[in-house]
Write a structure and sequence with these properties.
CATH topology of the largest domain: Rossmann fold
Number of strands: 8
Radius of gyration: 19 Å
Mean pLDDT: 97
Strand order of the largest sheet: 3-2-1-4-5-6-7-8
Bound molecules: 1,4-dihydronicotinamide adenine dinucleotide, 1,3-dihydroxyacetonephosphate
Structural class: alpha/beta
CATH class of the largest domain: Alpha Beta
Shape: globular
Oligomer: single chain
Largest sheet: 8 strands, mixed
Number of domains: 2
């Protein structure tokens, strides 16, 4: 078995290490020939996961053909870059494509599986759920969801991508899986902002829970299954990301709450996703006040003003 991974950032590298630890051949592709040569020399990724050594069967490469020659292709690039990456690929027709990104494309409102399916005829899946790259790379236990509309392809991928420290569950609901993974990042920004501003753990719990209600509302409207949102890819990842400073989305929220600035070079999927989701919510008439508040914070609205507006909306049933 061989697995190709496009994107040698934190997540692509962590997955490569875990999969290759089981002696599967992994071709980890990155766009910078210099970086990939350095990874091959050091047998680790000095920029993203400097402490994790590469197993023998992990091959860092800048040659796309090596990754495209594998039996499965994982796409571990940021969501807003996925279209460009896919456009540049001349793919074998039956090669399964597994999105490993979490977000909604700003220009179209599409999640990763819908985007792949709009551009390529290949079988499309998503691997998502609560997992920090640092944890996976250390060999710590994690559980993820593999969603694929075709159960034969999906269960085959489930078995191929399960490793000693990644337990993969299969579901067919790709829409629910991509919405859960995308929207939890928006809620993590909101929770980080509340903690950063000193509003306390009770406020965070309220935002997490009412944020989950927003996620369910959007998912229900789009036709996703409620059970998917309550699983690893929704509630599971929401719980992780809203409560840990390892999350970049949560950390962006912290800086918004503290009135500090955030490094623009860091991948934070929730910012573009909040805007894309708010556009969709307006189009479809879905009430998403926390998502709206996150967009206002990103646009520079004072946190206390934004929170006052959130709390002073008309009272309603839970
Ligand atoms: N880091 C984590 O713990 C986890 C990340 N994810 C998801 O994985 C996705 C990728 O995130 P990370 O790896 O963490 O980000 P990262 O910032 O660590 O790495 C992103 C990688 O994508 C590459 N890239 C960007 N644009 C590209 C392009 N046009 N062509 C080729 N390569 C390009 C960058 O060079 C970099 O190597 C995101 O959607 C994120 O939500 C999912 C689970 C865990
Ligand atoms: O998706 C993640 C954990 O499941 C990683 O979260 P961040 O992108 O916020 O770091």
């Amino acid at each position: 078995m061989s697995v190709g991974i496009l994107g040698a950032g934190a997540f692509g590298t962590a997955l490569a290490i875990s999969i290759a630890s089981g002696r599967t051949t992994v071709q980890l592709w990155g766009r910078s020939a210099d970086d990939m040569a350095e990874q091959a020399r050091q047998r680790r990724n000095p920029r993203y996961l400097p402490d994790a050594a590469y197993p023998d069967t992990l091959h860092p490469t800048a040659d796309l053909a090596e990754a495209l020659g594998c039996e499965v292709l994982l796409l571990a690039v940021p969501m807003q870059r996925l279209r460009d990456v896919l456009r540049g690929l001349d793919l074998p027709p039956h090669l399964p494509l597994v999105a490993c990104c979490k977000g909604i494309e700003l220009a179209t409102g599409l999640g990763p599986v819908r985007l792949i399916s709009s551009l390529k005829p290949n079988p499309a899946a998503i691997l998502t759920g609560p997992s920090f790259a640092q944890d996976i790379a250390k060999g710590l236990p994690t559980a993820l969801t593999l969603a694929c509309a075709d159960p034969l392809v999906g269960t085959a991928l489930q078995h191929k991508l399960s490793t000693a420290n990644i337990r993969v569950y299969y579901i067919s609901d790709t829409l629910g899986a991509e919405l859960g993974g995308a929207l939890k990042n928006v809620m993590a920004i909101a929770c980080g902002a509340a903690i950063g501003a000193g509003l306390g753990d009770s406020a965070r719990a309220a935002l997490l829970t009412r944020g989950f209600a927003e996620m369910q509302r959007m998912a229900h409207h789009m036709g996703a299954r409620a059970e998917t949102l309550a699983g690893l890819s929704g509630l599971g990842d929401l719980a992780l990301t809203c409560t840990s400073e390892l999350s970049r989305n949560f950390r962006l929220g912290l800086t918004l709450g503290r009135g500090e600035s955030f490094d623009k070079g860091v991948t934070v999927e929730g910012a573009a996703t909040a805007r894309a989701t708010l556009d969709q919510a307006k189009t479809h008439g879905i009430d998403m006040p926390i998502t709206q508040t996150v967009v206002r914070l990103l646009d520079g609205t004072d946190l206390h003003k934004a929170m006052d507006d959130l709390l002073s909306r008309p009272l309603k049933e839970e």
